Amino acid sequence: MSDIRDNPYLAHMHGGAEAAGGARGSEPNKAFAALVPGKTTAAQQEATEDSDCSGLTGRAFSQKYKSILAKRRELPVNKQRQKFLDLVHSNQFVVLVGETGSGKTTQIPQYMVLDMLPHVEGKMIACTQPRRVAATSVAQRVADEMDVKLGQEVGYSIRFEDCTSARTVLKYCTDGMLLREAMSDNMLSRYSAVILDEAHERTLNTDVLMSLMKNIAAQRLDIKIVVMSATLDSEKFQKYFNDAPLLTVPGRTYPVEIYYTPEPEADYLEAAIKTALQIHASEPEGDILLFLTGEEEIEEACRLLRARGDDLIRRANCGPLLVVPLYSTLPPAMQQKIFSKAPEPRTKGGAPGRKIVVSTNVAETSLTIDGIVYVVDPGFAKQKVYNPRVRVESLLVSPISRAAAQQRAGRAGRTRPGKCFRLYTEKSFNSDLIEQTYPEILRSNLGSIVLQLKKLGINDLVHLDLMDPCAPEVLMRALELLHYLGALDDDANLTPLGLAISEFPIDPQLAKMVVSAADYGCTNEALSIAAMLSVPNVFLRPREAQRAADMAKAEFAHMDGDHMTLLNVYHAFKSCADPTQWCWDNFLQYRSLKSADSIREQLRRIAANNEIPLVSNDFNSPDYYPQIRKALTAGFFMQVAHLERNGQYLTVKDNQLVLLHPSSVLERKPEWVAYNEFALTKRHYIRTVTEVKPEWLLDIAPHYYDLESFPPCEGKRILEKIALRNTIFREEQDMKKRRKDKKDRKDREGKDKKDKKDKDKKVKKDKEKRHRSKD
Ligand SMILES: Nc1ncnc2c1ncn2[C@@H]1O[C@H](COP(=O)(O)OP(=O)(O)O)[C@@H](O)[C@H]1O
Ligand SMILES: [Mg+2]
């Protein structure tokens, strides 16, 4: 039976015991009340955690809280709590390095809350994560650890999703979100401490944020900055942060045996599934973590593992399997499944069950899953690559680095000795994999970030204090893009249009489309398209029902192309009676559409706040769709391809040979198309494509389609013809106008003369009249 003293509603029944036995039940947390901001000790902090009720909420701690607390105390970082607090008290920057799973992400922010007392001081603690899924998942865990409801005292903020409230004292957010917040609050004045987690990932946003934090810290001596990572070139970070002190948390790891394949694997997915099932069939108890590259691949692997696993269980009498996927677009409830226990044996004493987690890179360091004993590492991850020469940024499945492979292997040795199966040869590990992945700033399109920095008032981008400076060519491309979009003027200063574009948390091209749509009377439609382009693919195409799925999609197809098709889908979604059923029937991803709807509302609010008129043209007008496509052109005129006579598309100016992606609804090949994405796989594809008119290009973006600076190609010759036609047409118009003006002038002169004559005549007549009357 549970102790009635644990029930706050029965507090009146044991008042006497309380007085004698110290704080119990709803007695306020005295230890908490005694904390002095910026001066707490580990013992004081632990005392408040050991109390019976929360200092933050005033509520009695639950049983669950207490059982988690016992586990938290065992974490390696807890042993370093005093050392950490000492360092934070005497330094503005602290660098902290600790093995994955040592408790950095979940514990350090809580120590900061107890030390800085944000609810008293009125300033929050922020902890940044490079990945959305890590931010949401860890926030949930820490809310549980602190015994509060997610979104109240502990919350998260990721793009298009804010789960915080006025009560929030600790916020987990993506690095991109904090950067965006800095645009409106340059000194991040709402925060007393910022914890930059997973710094070793060196994402573009983390790098820029680090430089920003350095700048802010120089002006705000009250702010504390903690930089955390699993593996880190710690000296480089310490030096960068003005010789910050380093705290190393010794990890708790077990040896991991590494196995390589003797020969390279032709099909890593197939090899991965085979390996995982082999482990299940022949290795002792312990869960499996399999690294793959993205949602589609992961779902496919899960499906195959379940099907073949069932077979294995039946034929070989293996234990039951729990197969769980993990990737960034998975809804939160599904994400939490990775923490479920392996299934029980089917019969008492039967073969033990096993959990297989199939995950993207997020399980490499961001999320720690206990109970993993076996790791299957095919050696690939999706990575951003950018080629400034042809201005193409793409997510590409690429080999991981040796450092990443080591991290992955380490996941197997968290609770006991484990095994890691690398699906590549040892030779390949030693000679093909690079030592460290290059920081993202060296392989990204910087358009969006440069715009944000401009908004922050940082004009001198070349001398920005970055850990690794960005490549001049990449920076130049970003400035050029923003200049063409009209976001920057000739002196590279932010224009009013640029300011409006920067308000939207989407790519500058997409934001330009929304902002310009007002000129074409179609902001409502542009907002819907922008929202639909900001969510994962809405069209489902299950392997066993591809034809049916294609037929369902064809119902929405618009002859102008994919953007208009997305618009059709969104409108149909908004007007159907039972959205879940309707999506199911039409092979559409309900989750994505629902999220598009919420994103649209957020974009709409931003547009309204920026006084962008929310308008639509008459749906029955023949101009309805052309106007929307013109707005699209206003944003995407730099992403246009021309169909050459040989039947192939060539991107304008960059002359890259591309194919329409097979997913496009376009059955014919329009001569000119604007595209949303350049997909770099074995072949070059352009994805999400809509027909545009060459005369619009000349009209809407004459500075970009300045034919003098155009490399020779068929498209150029056509544009030249149109430009010539335009010139002749304009000259003809001018001539006509001049003729008309001349005629008008003559007519007017003639009329003036006549008027004068008439007037003179009248005066003469009047004179004569007066004379006569005198007579
Ligand atoms: N959602 C969760 N459910 C259960 N346990 C969790 C969860 N998240 C974290 N943990 C536990 O907390 C420990 C510390 O995790 P974390 O703070 O993320 O470590 P680090 O950031 O150092 O890698 C993990 O080893 C795990 O035992
Ligand atoms: Mg962590």
TrEMBL record:
Family: Belongs to the DEAD box helicase family. DEAH subfamily. DDX15/PRP43 sub-subfamily.
Reaction equation(s) it catalyzes: ATP + H2O = ADP + phosphate + H(+)
GO CC annotation, single: spliceosomal complex
Name the UniProt record assigns to this protein: RNA helicase
Alphabetized GO MF terms: ATP binding; hydrolase activity; RNA binding; RNA helicase activity
Organism of provenance: Coemansia biformis
Gene name of the encoded protein: PRP43
Organism lineage: Eukaryota, Fungi, Fungi incertae sedis, Zoopagomycota, Kickxellomycotina
Domain Helicase C-terminal, residue spans: 272-457
Enzyme class: hydrolase
PANTHER family attached to this UniProt entry: ATP-DEPENDENT RNA HELICASE, ATP-DEPENDENT RNA HELICASE DHX15 HOMOLOG
Taxonomy, superkingdom: Eukaryota
Keywords from the UniProt entry: ATP-binding, Helicase, Hydrolase, mRNA processing, mRNA splicing, Nucleotide-binding
